[in-house]
Amino acid sequence: MWIPTEHEKYGVVLVSFRGTVQHGLPLEIGDTVQILEKCEGWFRGFILKNPNIKGIFPSSYIHLKNAHVKNKGQFETVIPVEDSVITEMTSTLRDWGAMWKQLYVKNEGDLFHRLWHVMNEILDLRRQVLVGHLTHDRMRDVKQHITARLDWGNEQLCLDLVPRREFSMVDPDEISVTELYRLMEHRHRKKETSAPASTHHLFVHVKSLMSTNLGEELEVFFHIYDGRENRPLSERFFVKLNKSGLPKSPEKTERQCTLFVDLGSSDLRKDVYIVVHIIRIGRMGAGEKKNLCSVQYRRPFGCAVVSIADLLTADSKDDHLLKVYACNTESEWYQIHENIIKKANSRYNLSGSNTGLAVALQLLHGDIEQLRREYMVLFTRGVSITRKLGFSDVIMPGEMRNDLYITLEKGEFEKGGKSVARNVEITVYVLDIDGQILKSHVAAGSGEPGGDEYHSLVLYHNNSPRWAEQIKLPIPVDMFRGSHVRFEFRHCSTKDKGEKKLFGYSFVPLMQEDGRTLPDGTHELIIHKCEENTSLADCSRYLKQPFSKTNLPSNNQTLKGTKESFWITSFLCSTKLTQNGDMLDLLKWRAHPERINDSLSKLKEIDGSEIVKFLQDTLDTLFGILDESSQRYGLKVFDSLVHIINLLQDSKFQHFKPVMDTYIESHFAGALSYRDLIKVLKWYVDRIVDAEHQDHIQQVLKASEYIFKYIIQSRRLFSLATGGQNEEEFRVCIHELFMSIRFFLSQENKSTSPVAQTQAVFLRTFPAVYGELLKIFTVREVAGFVRETLGTLPTAVHADCLEAVKLQCIAKTVESQLYINPESRCILLPVVLRILQAHMQEQRDLVMCARILTSMLSLIKKEENGTAEPVVSEEVELIVESLLGVLLRTILEISNRPQPAGPAMRLQFQDVTGEFVACLLALLRQMSDRHYQQLLQAFSSKDNLRDFLLQIFTVFRILIRPEMFPKDWTVMRLVTNNVIITTVLYLSDALRKNFLNDKFDYKVWDSYFYLSVIFINQPCLQLESFSPSKRKKILEKYGDMRVMMGCEIFSMWQNLGEHKLNFIPAMIGPFLEVTLVPQPDLRNVMIPIFHDMMDWEQRRSGNFKQVEAKLIDKLDSLMSEGKGDETYRELFNSIIPLFGPYPSLLKKIERETWRESGISLIATVTRLMERLLDYRDCMKLGEVDGKKIGCTVSLLNFYKTELNKEEMYIRYIHKLYDLHLKAQNYTEASYTLLLYDELLEWSDRPLREFLNYPMQSEWQRKEYLHLTIVQNFDRGKCWENGIILCRELADQYESYYDYRNLSKMRMMEASLYDKIMDQQRLEPEFFRVGFYGKKFPFFLRNKEFVCRGHDYERLEAFQQRMLNEFPHAIAMQHVNQPDQTIYQADAQYLQIYAVTPIPESQDVLQRDGVPDNIKSFYKFNHIWRFRYDRPFHKGTKDKENEFKSLWVERTTLTLVQSLPGISRWFEVEKREVVEVSPLENAIEVIENKNLQLRTLITQCQSRQMQNINPLTMCLNGVIDAAVNGGLARYQEAFFAKDYIMNHPEDGEKIGRLRELMFEQAHILEYGLAVHEKFVPQDMRPLHKKLVDQFHLMKSSLGIQEFPAYVRASPVHFTNGSPRTCRNSVPNIISPDGGRGVARRSLPSYPAVNRYSSSSLSSQASNEVSNITGQSESSDEVFNMQPSPSTSSLSSNHSASPNVTSSAPSSARGSPQMAEKHKHSRENACLSPRERPVSAIFPNPLDPAQRAPCHQIGDTTLPRSDPNLSAPDKGSSAKNMRSQSPVTSRSPQKTTVPPFTPSPTECQSTSLVSNSPVLSGSYSSGISSLSRCSVSEASGTELPAGDHPSHPLPPPTTLPNSVSSSSDEPIRRENKTPPPYSVYERNNPRRPVPLPHSLSIPPQTDPPALPPKPHQLRTGSMKLDGTSDPRVPRPRPLPRKVSQL
Do 1882 and 1589 contact (CB within 8 A), yes or no? Predict the structure, then answer.
């Protein structure tokens, strides 16, 4: 039976449990579970992270932990009883775990690894804490370490700052807000700036000395040296190195590592150095032979110097290689380091080119104890401490030190009968009082242990040696008396055995008779001569002799006169011994009572460090004198005491205060002193007002804290001794003293007067006295003293400094022990509030005011749970009454002030705001119902209440600002919000009661709503963005405060009644913002408000246009900020009531009378939401540009077409423009900006400042736009478009006679023409992309687009790019249209294949003599339609001859706008599919091949080809294929009787095929003739083979003799090209032919390099004689030969297809094309690029219509032209020249401009674009000819009788169309007109007629070409189709623009 658990409440899972049993709960190791019930070895409960799922699990799998249960019963919560640090660690690590994985996903490797290490470290520390074996100190260190790591991780992951006290997290509800703020501030500060350490330490680790000439042991001495004062700052650190230059004791790290401790901040200067002296130990001369002598000497080796400032920048332990220098002359060794510092190069040199000392140096900062904890390894391994010479900046009591430093400075010696100077060595000994040598008390430096003696350096042959060697004598204090130091001088002989011969000695006693030690400074010692073998063991002999020349008696001339002397410098650093005689005199006052007065006077002159050494003794002396003779010395003792007390205020000695405190508590025994102290103090206070000099009195008052301590302690001692006698007398004395104080405080003085300054001094120390007084007096008595004392202060004080001090005094009072007691608080609070209020009202000393208020309110919180509830309530009441109003005003005032400059000031300023805010929150949190009622009732009038409400609402808005607190202070923000919402709930009642109905006040209500909206929208309340654990914590503690506030808004709105109209439409935006918060309950509360607004607006004005306009504007701005989601749209739109009681808005609207307009509004808003949501998602960081652009285009169209929101539309135009510029789509950027340009006119109307445009006239803005667009067209190589704009600008300049700018514009125009001719343009690929499936963004979903590829981008690259943009998409491997399952799939499918553009401007492309540079533009610009061919077999496939059944399915895609335009891709608007029969396919293939052959032959003839290989290969391909069955297959398929009988309608086409075959043979024959002329010798055999095969081919075709119409033409191509006349195959064969029925068999096909037309120089392309105007055909030819491509390898189409493939050509890479198809059907079909698109070319019309046709050539698709027939027999080139100036140009000397109307010749000078606003493309090129001369499908005009498959315009002759172009262009139906149209610019522009030479007479004969078999046929192949006239496109966009 299941029973509820009593104690087993909480546990951790030890073993994973799968939960396979019935009701089993799956568990993972480490999960924490809450247990509800138990039953026979099983528990029932839930995992804490998912409390909704409950189940059972084995009890043995759970480790139970102690837990504290809150709220027992159904909703109990369980909190584990464990260290709060452990709890925090566990929850934090869980949060980090999830985020840590995300770091890996986001590729933030560095942080990922760092966090991983920290997490492991924390886990390890957690283990240590849990084991529980740590000492208290170690536990503290570990916790500190843990919290530091947690804070670091939280900061790195941008998590919240955790408020802590003593390492434990703080519950914000359990402390006051001011306390919480302090904790947060403290932690924030700690994080921001750590206070600079005042003490620093230098770590030195000696590694080795590197040198070539070692071989002797070395001694290395380090010390810190002050270059400014030329003195050492530290003692020396001494390291011994072996002969290899390595440390002698590598195992003892303390011998190689040291810490130079206690460096002050002033020591970290550039002129403070680390100086290293190196001494070698060995022979006298470095190069002497080893066997000369065995005696070792200490000799100079070298010196190195490094500045400490160089180490400041290094943050780690850096290895340094110090250069070692040697001095040039040994006598200067003592100052070598100074010379190096001064860079006196002449005095030293490098001791070896590669000599260097390797050391590690690191500066450490902070207290030494702290360093011990932080660098534990350093100290445990061992490091010697090298001290500073003298005490550190701060002297600590208890510090024991007794070091005597002696520096061997120099000596003066006589030669001693020698011819050369001596080599002097000094040996130093320390001897005690008995003459025994003190063992181990002579140290060369730290690092090495001390020795019994010290041997100095030996300087070679020097009678005046200067050693400058410092030694340390650490002699114990008790041995100092009677000890002395002896210096023995020996001459070191370099001869004989190298003995050291004694020749003299000196000595110095360490202490004088009177107990003073040897004074610091330099001493000149006497050198006492002695014999070599003199024994100095009996020191009593020489101690009687004088030791120093300074204290020689005047009669001892013999010693004084001697030249020999020895100088030493001594320095004592002792905490016990003194060199000061005055100090000793005072301490021995009883021995010399007559000196007392003198000693007390001299005390002030004694150095402070001497006094603190003997602090206790000095104080005992003073009170001893006071007890014995108070009358006589009372004042002097008091002054001395004041001097000592004030000495301890100094920062150097402040640590001795505790010593004095201890003395007062434990050692002070002056039970009678209090009387004298009170008397003298009162005497001083009484003299204040009259005294002229206040300095001494101020010193006395500064010491009043300790004087009171002595008074009180003395009185307590007296009471204890006497049983409390004279109590009353004592009280009277104190009262009198305070009366004197109050009198002097009540004096009003100017701030500069000495008395005012004295008052300030007293007020600073006064609060410190409270604690002492409390030891004797009651709390009330002391509070009374304080109140009266502070109360006497003059209120109108003129002294600013005194005001500040007064506040400081109040602050200390509030922070004192006295104020904490509630009894005293009642007495003191009114005084404190009075002073505080006065300051805050005047906005003075706000920092201090904030501090006082913070302290007061922290105390109130502490008492809240205690017994003194009524007292607290009263205090709150008092504070609210006197400070709430002024506090609100202060916050408003300081928030609106401009922030002061300078970081320090700004920090202080911020502090004040934060402190006051915390105070306000604390106060409001303390206020109960009663307080609020009293507050609201206290207002005397409505106006006052209104002002108060406005004020508090404004302050709340300030508190909600993001910058109010640092971003990681979520805890603080939540507390703030909790207080705000509680207060608002109280105040909303007041609002309802006082400001509704007739008393309605719009301003207060508006302020209220505005606050509520801002409150709900705060980032810190958006729980959805938080982690689940954080969300759960917040909801448990505070609930969802947004919903509470939302309900409050709703309830207040309902109360408004008819006053609601005041808030429409103003509140629409703010309320909309609230509904965009993704919180269902909140939305359900808020959405009805919109219905209400629409209803009221409808009642008022009969519509809700205002609501609609505001709604749409706000939606846009909010969604672009990233708010809103899909559910929100449904909420607006859905019929189903969502989330609870409120029906959706639509449902509500449907019940209204105005439902239609309402539903329409909802529909519009929903569609806008769809686009905005897509836009928002696309604009997220990391999204690709293509997506962003597509989305922006969709939104831009919507604003223009559906909403007609002009300003929004223009904003998005500029957003799109910026996106294009960023993506370097300069052409698209131009088209985009053109949309805005279109909206403007050339008028002088002024425009306001808008976006980045200044205030200017419309003309100026349009001019600026024109120039910008031209610049971008230039960058995008779209020069033709730029020319049109240049011309338009030029016209404007001309009309204003602005010739300067006109000239510039003409020059710019000219430069664009140059660029067209000189620069190469890459030809882009086009790809059709289908986006299928519901997962795509709305603007792409289930739509197909055609995209313009990037430069050099082929299908594979494009496909990869699209898959990168949509990483979740699946690429479809076929080109068939997908079915509905794909459309509706919950996935993303991409279908991509290449398509061929169908150019609109056929007139330019088909004209002879137009350079390719120009044609390339028309081939790939203004493209509306694209084509894609798919081969398939109909019926049974004949295996012998598959051509019989090979059909082509041709798909033509029509776009909504032409490419390029405002986007790189546009949606497909119309899709047409037609089928091409096998016969038509064959005709196309042969036409294409004929055209290719013609082109190659022409190129070969005109020497355009570098070599003949392409022609060879092409001839070989055709002849070989024909021989092997190519043409024969066609004959077999289509010339068979069966076929002709079954297809009688194909008679004409069969005839046409036959003609083409004959024509091909004719061309081949001519081609072979040309080939023979140019073929190189080595290819002759191949040529012969080709000729033989050609004869075979002819016979296989049955051609013995060419028919008359073929022979009739003289076969030369000088003037006429061997073109065949082409039928206009009806429109089903649209341009660019079938994509390819069979792949060419050439193996190199997929990878062939292509030469684009532009690869031929323009000269060469002009030279092409009129055989063919299609230099482009070189593309196809060069495909045959994989020769290296030139730079002009433009991106035509992936490897120009040469074969009519069964799919898009392989280089275009259609997905379904298998490799095996690539080479099938040899030479049967040609690719689209080679194949003529018959519909491009006109039918054989009457001569007038045919005349222009010989000009028309398709550079994209070279092919034979059915309409260009050869002249009759006998017609000559001459005849042709006379007929047509264009074709008669000689190849070399052509100067006539091309026939194409260039942009400059156009009648209207503008670009054609495709949509009312958005197309940025030109629909049909630049010339008006383009529309008149091309058909719908292909750009060709057909006669009406031809019945093409597409609607066609009425035929117009070309010359007419040139001379008079109609104003209304013929446009495509269903297309929106372009914003930038050639035809619709109404500029008064004069027509530019064609030059006469370019106009073609209507009845011109056709040029001479080989006669065609079908010359006289007029019919063309027909297909069913209907023709309907073209309808001109409407242009809805008016040229009006609001003043933008």
Answer: no
Q: Which DSSP string corresponds to 279-314?
A: EEEE-SSTT--TTS----EEEEEEEEEEETHHHHS-
Report the alpha-carbon distance of residue 1183 to residue 1174 in Å, rounded. 12
Task: Using the structure block, give the residue that is written with the tokens 């091409």.
Answer: 1476
Identify how many contiguous H helices and E strands the chain contains and give both numbers: 66, 40
> How many CA within 13 A on the CB side of residue 1621?
30
Residue 440: left if φ>0, alpha if ψ -120 to 50, beta else—which one?
left
Q: Do 1144 and 1133 touch, CB atoms closer than 8 A?
A: yes
Strand partners, 442: 451
Angstrom distance (rounded) from CA 255 to CA 386: 12
What's the CA gap between 1214 and 1220, in Å, rounded?
Answer: 10
As a dihedral over the C-alpha atoms of residue 800, residue 801, residue 805, residue 811, rounded to 10 degrees, the angle is 50
d(CA 97, CA 103): 10
Return d(Cα 302, Cα 736) in angstroms, integer. Answer: 75
Query: What distance in Å separates the CA atoms of residue 1430 and residue 899, rounded to the nearest whole number?
Result: 72
Tokens coding 1518: 């055709």
d(CA 161, CA 157) in angstroms, rounded, equals: 11
- 3-state class (DSSP) for residue 1454: strand
Beta-bridge partners for 451: 442
Task: Give yes or no for a contact between 829 and 821, defined as CB atoms under 8 angstroms apart.
Answer: no
Instruction: State which amino acid sits at residue 1202.
Output: E
* Phi, psi (degrees; rounded to nearest 5) at 940: -75, -30
pLDDT by 10-residue block (mean), the chain, 1940 residues: 87 91 91 91 90 91 86 74 81 86 86 91 88 81 87 86 81 82 76 65 88 84 92 92 87 83 82 92 73 76 89 70 89 90 87 83 82 74 83 64 89 80 90 87 87 91 90 87 90 76 89 80 89 82 83 65 85 74 66 68 72 75 73 76 82 77 81 81 82 80 85 85 82 86 78 75 84 84 85 65 80 84 82 84 80 82 49 80 83 75 48 83 86 85 88 90 85 91 89 83 90 90 84 86 91 87 82 80 81 80 74 69 57 38 55 66 71 68 66 77 79 89 91 93 92 92 95 94 95 94 95 92 92 87 92 91 90 90 92 92 75 84 92 84 87 93 91 92 88 82 76 88 74 86 88 90 91 89 91 78 47 39 36 36 33 33 34 36 33 35 36 38 36 35 37 36 37 37 36 40 40 35 32 37 39 36 38 37 38 35 36 36 40 39
- Max Cα distance, the chain (Å): 161
What are the angstrom distances between the C-alpha of 1624 and each of 615, 1727, 1762, 1835?
122, 19, 7, 11
CA distances from 739 to 267, 682, 769, 805 (A): 50, 10, 16, 21
Whether the CB-CB separation of 7 and 68 falls below 8 Å is answered with: no
| Residues 1481 and 1447: beta-carbon distance below 8 Å | yes
Report residue 458 as tokens.
Answer: 């030996």
- Do residues 1454 and 1472 make contact, with C-beta atoms less than 8 angstroms apart? yes
Task: Write out the H or E segment, with its range, that includes residue 528.
Answer: strand 528-529
Q: At what angle do helices 929-937 and 869-879 cross, to 10 degrees?
A: 30
Cβ pair 503, 490 in contact under 8 A = yes
Count of CB atoms situated within 10 Å of the CB of 532: 11
Tally the residues of the chain. 1940
CA of residue 1441 relative to chain centroid, distance: 68
Q: CA 98, 99, 104 angle in degrees (round to 5)?
A: 105
- For residue 1038, what is the enclosing H or E element? helix 1028-1038
Q: Which residues contact 514 (CB under 8 A, 6 or more apart)?
A: 581, 584
Amino acid identity for residue 923 in this structure: L
Place of tokens 């900061």: 155
Q: From the centroid of its chain, how far is CA 927?
A: 44
